[in-house]
Design goal:
The chain is an alpha/beta fold and about 325 residues long. The protein has 8 helices and 8 strands; from the N terminus they run H-H-H-E-E-E-H-E-H-E-E-H-E-H-E-H. Strands 1-2-4-3-5-8-6-7 form an 8-stranded mixed β-sheet, sandwiched between helices. Helix 4 (about 120-140) packs across helix 8.
Length: about 325
């Protein structure tokens, strides 16, 4: 895991960017995030039976159908990106908004819709899918103001047993961009954005010393990156801080546990800059991968602020 000097350096670099960047004036439009929409999506996905894991293809298809219908309702034309894994067919759902002077340039934002095992997956990852749909609705409304084309992707197979393999939906998507020689301006992975608590000691970290620099209360949203993606991390955090949500950042190598525990990892593999927006998962949420990961444990008011902040980050790319 490296020497103490390496750990201190990691923490020091993270702490340098704790407070954001120099003061700049930005104009942020009203986003109008719908708490009802967020709650409806989380409710629908968590009520799918059996659980929407890799073994239950009909449940995954039901989730994918719901996501496609919502995208279509917001004015998009959804596309299915089908791929094989363990002899079965799975799919990503993809839509795009905005244009670019360079047709090969794109920015990606995504969230996975599958769950681990037999659990409802309210935070992991229905919360992020709900956020993805709301961000897409905003992007369609402000399509003529987007600085580049943005691709919204709902992934299948993020969870075990496919996590870390080339059968992850996000790997399939990232590779498809690479194979087409697309210019990926960056990527945001939404990974669990709904669990918040003000209880002291509720927030844990992969390195004990991080508690000296970061809060003990799990009441913030994290923006996590590798070092190459530090600029995108700072950009994302800067605009998210304009919303009513506390934001903390970390840039660290993948051997720090949790840094690459979502779909951004696959964009890193192809050399793209990518960040994860997260409530820090198992470092905070005791319901992680448990049957207790239910809709009543989520903070929808804070989710709305997270979504608003990401919308502003996209608009100001």
């Amino acid at each position: 895991m490296g020497s103490n000097i390496v750990w201190v350096f990691v923490l020091f670099v993270s702490f340098l960017f704790f407070g954001g960047c120099a003061s700049v004036e930005y104009s942020y439009p009203e986003v109008g995030v719908s708490g009802d929409n967020l709650r409806e999506t989380v409710g629908f996905l968590t009520e799918i039976k059996p659980a929407r894991n890799y073994q239950n293809l009909r449940s995954l298809e039901k989730a994918a159908g719901y996501i496609s219908d919502k995208f279509a309702e917001y004015g998009f034309k959804p596309k299915r990106q089908e791929f094989g894994a363990s002899g079965q067919t799975y799919c990503n759902i993809i839509v795009s908004a905005g244009t670019s002077e360079d047709a090969r340039q794109v920015f990606v934002i995504g969230a996975h819709y599958d769950v681990a095992g037999d659990q409802p997956g309210a935070d992991d990852n229905a919360s992020a899918v709900a956020g993805l749909l709301e961000i897409a609705r905003f992007a369609k409304k402000y399509e003529d103001q987007l600085p580049c084309r943005i691709e919204f992707v709902a992934y299948s197979l993020e969870e075990p047993p496919f996590f870390g393999t080339d059968q992850m939906g996000s790997y399939v998507h990232a590779k498809s961009l690479h194979d087409k020689d697309m210019k990926v301006k960056g990527m945001i992975s939404l990974e669990m954005i709904g669990y918040f608590t003000d209880v002291k000691g509720s927030q844990k970290y992969p390195i004990g010393l991080m508690g000296l620099f970061y809060p003990s209360e799990g009441n913030f949203i994290g923006v996590i990156s590798n070092y190459k993606s530090g600029g995108l991390k700072r950009h994302t955090a800067r605009h998210m801080k304009a919303a009513s949500i506390k934001v903390r950042t970390l840039a660290a190598p993948s051997f720090v546990q949790g840094v690459d525990f979502s779909d951004q990892r696959n964009y890193w593999k192809f050399g793209y800059k990518a960040v994860m927006v997260t409530d820090t998962a198992f470092y905070r949420n005791p319901n992680y991968h448990q049957t207790t990961d239910t809709i009543d444990t989520l903070s929808f008011d804070k989710m709305k602020e997270v979504v608003k902040g990401v919308c502003w980050a996209l608009l100001n790319l």
